[in-house]
Amino acid sequence: MSETSGQRPVGVIGAGSFGTAIANLLAYNADVLLYSRNIELVDTINSTREHLGIHLSASVQATNDLQQLARECNLLFPIVPSTNFRKMMHNLGPHLRPYHMLIHGTKGFDIRGISDSNPGGGKLKRENVSTMSEVIRQESVVVRVGCLSGPNLASEIMEGQPTATLIASPFDEVIHAGKMVLDSKHFHVFGSHEILGAELAGALKNVIALGSGILKGKGLGKNLQAMLITRGLTEMVHFGKAMGASGSAFFGTAGIGDLVATATSKRSRNFTFGFRLGQGESMEDISDSMPELAEGVRTLQITRQLADYYNLRVPITEMLHRVVFEGFDIDRALEYLMTYPYDVDVDFL
Ligand SMILES: NC(=O)C1=CN([C@@H]2O[C@H](COP(=O)(O)OP(=O)(O)OC[C@H]3O[C@@H](n4cnc5c(N)ncnc54)[C@H](OP(=O)(O)O)[C@@H]3O)[C@@H](O)[C@H]2O)C=CC1
Ligand SMILES: O=C(CO)COP(=O)(O)O
Fold it and tell me: How confident is the model over 301-323, as pLDDT tens digits?
């Protein structure tokens, strides 16, 4: 039993890579209810205490019951892919009350009023795009929301490697509650009030990780990778400012911290997706043979449209979209970027 077993358990929604990693981290400080929509998986976790190749703490109990989760837990961590987030919230919403606090760990966007199977196929506007905290507010009575974002590759966390994260929320009590249950010698938790910036940074860095993977797959070196990360960060800041975030979130743990981790690690799914593209595989072949989630592919479709909507000058986003979705030649895209009339080095201060 955990040290705080007299207290309410903490809920995690989504027993994928990151939800499972977070459940085990929470278990250092609290009892944990881990929700999966898959009843067989729930039985397996509870009987074997093994999942995704790791041992789950005795403080983690799996459940298939959203009502039980909402009844027993005041603090919940929803961590499901962005494309399924609204549906999950739609199911959970009726069980939630204003006293609940939700801190999500999802790095992507929700879109409404436009086909989710082809988010780039229409004229996307800001009102079609929601961050996950916005979805939580739209689909429930919950007000106290937060976001968990940082260099948090699930496979490293599952191995017990240390890292840091950011809990961003306009509410001090959300940051405090999140720190109380997540902070440990393995996981340092920073706090911030800049929730929109943290959410945007988490989603947008996945696109740059795709690009970085492409360069690596092409056999290119660190100089160019560093330039892609640098100019990619600039594009992230331009998106962030256009969408109403301050630039500061992009220079902290959830920004440059996560960007470096994701855009340089072979353990990142987004980097790996790009790497395989760079090696010459087609988008279709990679999608068919890669069961793991690469959020950046969907995010790229959305940000390409948002760039038009905000009239942003984001050549990396533009070229990545052409390479990934239009079969544009990678060498030509590189040539375009190398001869692009970038004038000012740092143009967002
Ligand atoms: N993996 C990582 O290193 C990190 C991931 N993230 C972010 O976390 C999010 C989830 O990623 P990750 O865990 O890796 O993804 P996975 O693909 O490993 O797992 C996603 C999980 O979500 C579950 N799920 C999907 N839809 C629902 C739903 N409607 N209700 C309940 N559960 C649902 C899936 O269940 P089922 O098996 O039944 O389909 C699956 O268990 C993404 O946005 C990602 O960017 C953030 C930081 C690190
Ligand atoms: O967000 C992540 C690390 O912080 C996970 O990145 P991938 O989804 O690319 O594996």
Answer: 999 999 999 999 999 999 999 99
Lookup: tokens for 230: 């640098």
Complex ipTM tops 0.90: yes
Length of the chain measured in residues = 349
Is residue 216 flagged as an active site residue? no
Ligand 2 atom closest to 209 (CA) = 9
- Mutational pocket test of ligand 1: of 56, 165, 293, the residue with most ligand atoms within 8 Å of the beta carbon: 293
CA–CA dist 38, 24 (Å, integer): 19
Nearest to 214 by CA among 228, 197, 193, 201: 228
14 is in an annotated binding site: yes
Alpha helix positions (H), 33-171 = 39-48, 66-72, 82-92, 132-139, 154-158
Q: Which ligand has the nearest atom to the CA of 261?
A: 2
Spatial neighbors of 339 by CB under 8 A, at least 6 apart, are: none
Low-confidence stretches of the chain (pLDDT < 70) are 1-6, 116-122
Shortest-distance Cα residue to atom 5 of ligand 2: 153
Domain 204-338 has CATH 3.30.390.50: no
Residue of minimum CA distance from atom 2 in ligand 2 = 153
Query: Is the CATH number of domain 10-193 3.40.50.720?
Result: yes
Atom from ligand 1 closest to the CA of residue 82: 43
Same fold, 10-193 and 204-338: no
